[in-house]
Fold these 2 entries.
Entry 1:
Amino acid sequence: MMVCSENKDVFSAVVRSNKKIGQRFYRLGLEFSGDCAEPFGKARPGQFAELDLCGTALPRGEAIPEDLCDMAERNILLRRPFSFCDVTVKGDKTVVDILYDVVGPATLRMTTLSAGDSISIIGPLGNGFAMPSGKETALLVAGGMGAGPLLHLAKVLTADYPNIKVVAFAGAKTATTLPFEKRLDEVSEVLGFPLAEFAGYGIESLVATDDGSAGYKGFVTDCLLEWLGRCGLAAKDMIIYSCGPEKMLAKVAEIAQEKNIDCQISMERMMACGIGICQSCAVECKVAGSNETVYKLCCKDGPVFNSNEIVFSN
Ligand SMILES: Cc1cc2nc3c(=O)[nH]c(=O)nc-3n(C[C@H](O)[C@H](O)[C@H](O)COP(=O)(O)OP(=O)(O)OC[C@H]3O[C@@H](n4cnc5c(N)ncnc54)[C@H](O)[C@@H]3O)c2cc1C
Ligand code: FES
């Protein structure tokens, strides 16, 4: 059973911070107070929210990357889905952080949000990651921006399941596209854990880049396979949680199936409504015990699914 929010609604959040942390990566901090604080305070890792960015200003011309110039002016009719990389309850307020990558007109506009701005949000939506009952080790496998919800999961696992060992794997094309603020700090250096964000939760991390500019040279899934080959742990005691590009998720699902490890993955689809009405976010799923398939909705039935359910396209 995935964890589902019963409390979704339209809320207003106030921007607390919006920090550039990499070439095109930002971390947006949103504060919820009053009636909005409780539902977001209970948001589970893997759930998401739909942000209304249609009234948000575009950056100045020179601040728009060349490859996005053509699409920058496009009207934004629909809200955009984002998951949370951190949720913190402070008294009667909840602060939710979103890690985002600037890829088009809505995320370009997001970069101009500044402290004190208000933003309309629907959420928390969807089904998050289910917690690891009976497991000894949780492996978090992130590709690019997939790191966001897995950072949130890392925080919850270490707080609520202190006896479970957590290991994080983070992959990207090259070092500069790893969506992390700090590559190293004192804690991570002393522990030998390369990602400070995970080291802050006491979590060992392994980095993989396609070009070898940081960590393991190759895909994060090959790094995971090598690690599994030498870890000496029983498959039944492990669980994999993964988020990232679909090709990577397909490989993670294949590894999990071959090794017989339980695995949950967070899928992405274009989402027009985010609440199960428009049917734009279909995910083809297997029907247990038959060759038939059904279409489930990423926004409502997911975005987190058991990896053995999904029919991946080639
Ligand atoms: C459940 C969920 C959680 C998400 N969480 C995050 C997050 O934490 N951080 C983050 O940076 N992004 C996240 N995304 C993706 C984010 O919603 C899109 O990047 C954003 O909508 C892009 O809007 P845009 O107008 O800037 O670009 P658009 O012009 O809408 O898109 C730019 C390019 O990205 C592709 N794209 C856009 N949205 C999706 C999608 N949902 N699935 C596959 N391809 C897409 C488009 O095809 C296009 O090529 C999430 C998506 C989903 C479904
Ligand atoms: S986004 Fe509309 S049904 Fe899923």
Entry 2:
Amino acid sequence: MGIFKRIFSGELTLANVVYKITVYRDSVMGRVAGKVVIITGGASGLGAADARLLSGEGARVVLTDVDRERGEALAAELEGALFIEHDVRDEAAWQHVIATTVERLGGLDVLVNNAGLVKFGSVEETTLEEYRLLNSVMSEGTFLGCKYAVPAMAQSGGGSIINISSVAALKGVGAIVAYTAAKGAIRAMTRSVAVHCQERKYNIRCNVVLPGAHDTPMTRAALAELPSEEEGLNQIQQHGQGRPEDVARLVLFLASEESCHITGSELVIDNGETMR
Ligand SMILES: NC(=O)c1ccc[n+]([C@@H]2O[C@H](COP(=O)([O-])OP(=O)(O)OC[C@H]3O[C@@H](n4cnc5c(N)ncnc54)[C@H](O)[C@@H]3O)[C@@H](O)[C@H]2O)c1
């Protein structure tokens, strides 16, 4: 039976047809075809996996990082990708990244606020300088990203902001007080940004991803430093480490239209580490 007959007979609704066309289009063109995506901290680990997957699904990717060498090497591998050297603590650099993206690629659809670093230290051991460093990279960096991406996305007709927090924001982890505080700020900030964008009818979604341990250069360096009796190490041994691609698939979902009804949400990816 022809497609029109099936619609008129009630066998297929218009929504079914639109869905089938969308699935077909995505399978041919990619799930984020044509979207312009900025990924901070994109030279390594989770950010690099996001860049590879989203680029493979048709996105035009702008990688930013303080690590020029690795960032440029990855951008050269990915079709149409651009690398911009960028310290996420620097407000003027953020303005430059957004303006360059809009100018060169015609708009902005997705921002992944991923850049980060970890330093060990309890509340007694951590210096104010260390506390400020981690919070300026992760909490202030994410704030600046949202601040300058929102107007650019609103101009493009909407978008998706994906903030990378951590399960450390859900638990008490005594050994990483500054990291935990920064990731907690990202978690709370996400809801504020999501509400603001919805109230303004910007069609911008903002969600936060909270990963457990995944195998990246950051995790490897941290594991090498952790004392064997440390609780965090037990938890990693118990729940295992995910692969960067596991987080990238979640980022892809949030970047794509498949998640169009999701905003202000917290998506935990930790193989059950925090489920009880
Ligand atoms: N790997 C994990 O298990 C895990 C778990 C939870 C959350 N996270 C978070 O995921 C994100 C990525 O971590 P990763 O494991 O891929 O680490 P990674 O060290 O492999 O990559 C982090 C990247 O961020 C960049 N970066 C650091 N400071 C920066 C700055 N000031 N400006 C711009 N770029 C900067 C680094 O150069 C690096 O390329 C981080 O926010 C991290 O906290 C990771």
